[in-house]
Amino acid sequence: IGRNSIQEYSINPKNEYFSVSFGSRSNGDKYVELVLEKPLDREEQAEMDFSLIAVDGGSPPRTGTTQVSIAILDVNDNAPIFTEERYLGQVLENMPEGSVVLTVVATDEDAGINGDISYQFSQAVSQSESAFVIDPRSGEIQLTKPLDFEAAQTHELSVRATDGGGLSAICKVVVEVLDVNDNAPELMVSSFSSPLPENSVPGTVVALFSVRDRDAGANGKVSCALEDQLFFSLRPAYKNYYELLVLAKALDREEAAFHELVLRASDGGDPARTGTARIRVTVLDANDNTPVFSQGEYTVRVPEDVPVGSTLVTLTATDPDEGLNGHVKYS
């Protein structure tokens, strides 16, 4: 009693989180309280152990000690954090349904359900309209259908990670679509002169056409050629346009009334893809042939008493031209 009773309490080792309050109430009862001095952080230290020491006022003083173990319970005070703010993925446009594009990863320092993370796209898009689906547990993003480089070269997605306590974080996912050589070159004739007079001068433009390939890079680089032709040639005009020209060799309707031309365009892919276009050029007749008699000289023996009006000989001349150009009159 008195001076020999407990005089103070202390904590060993001292820490910044707890202190001891000791005193007497109005009714004379003594009390001792462990007081929290600053907020705890379970993510920094989940448990704390120290000794509580009571000291009396005797001489020499005597002490009593008890061990205090404090387990800090988790509250949902940490939101998920993505390993990256912006994820970049690349995928070939011909990758099949179910292919994995990339995996997003978020962590949460909380424990238990407060640290359980689920993933979803932050803006809901119907499965019929979206080319992507995300696994809510693993964060794995997969294709729901093949992509088309020619329709869209990049896709931007927003992914939300939500913990069990409702806290969330958002990251951006950019998917780059890589081109494959899935488009053949296309040829489009923009102007065409047919029929073509057979006396057209060399260099006459017969047709103007363009070529295009919706692929990119070497897959979209196109070269054009004309198959096996003696009368026509190609000449680049501008950009992706070509001119079909008459060669120096003259056309001859009497030898060929029309020409079947095959235009072939090839891209730079590996393997290359090709596109073809067929043009039929009809040759228009020019009056470039004179009538020709079946004989250069006719010798006719006629009796002197042949009646007037009698047919002495029939002369025949032909002209290979057509229409009026080939119609023969005699005089």
Please give a structural write-up:
The protein has four domains: 6-71, Immunoglobulin-like (Sandwich), CATH 2.60.40.60; 81-178, Immunoglobulin-like, CATH 2.60.40; 186-284, Immunoglobulin-like (Sandwich), CATH 2.60.40.60; 289-330, no CATH class. The chain is 0% helix and 44% strand. It is built from no helices and 24 strands. A four-stranded mixed β-sheet has the order 7-14-13-10, with no helix packed on it. A four-stranded antiparallel β-sheet has the order 15-17-20-19, with no helix packed on it. With 331 residues, it is mainly β.
Low-confidence stretches: none
CATH fold name of the largest domain: Immunoglobulin-like
Order of helices and strands: EEEEEEEEEEEEEEEEEEEEEEEE
How many helices does DSSP assign?
Answer: 0
Structural class: mainly beta
> How large, in whole angstroms, is the Cα Rg?
49 Å
Strand order of the largest sheet: 7-14-13-10
Mean pLDDT: 89
Overall number of strands: 24
Largest sheet: 4 strands, mixed
Distance between the first and last residues' Cα:
164 Å
Q: Globular, elongated, flat, extended or rod-shaped: what is the shape?
A: rod-shaped
Q: Architecture of the largest domain, according to CATH?
A: Sandwich
The CATH fourth-level homologous superfamily of the largest domain? Cadherins
Roughly how much helix do the residues carry, as a percent range?
under 10%
Number of domains: 4
Bin the strand percentage: 35-45%
Q: What is the CATH level 1 assignment of the largest domain?
A: Mainly Beta
Subcellular location: Cell membrane
Protein name: PCDBF protein
Keywords: Calcium, Cell adhesion, Cell membrane, Glycoprotein, Membrane, Repeat, Signal, Transmembrane, Transmembrane helix
Organism: Serilophus lunatus (silver-breasted broadbill)
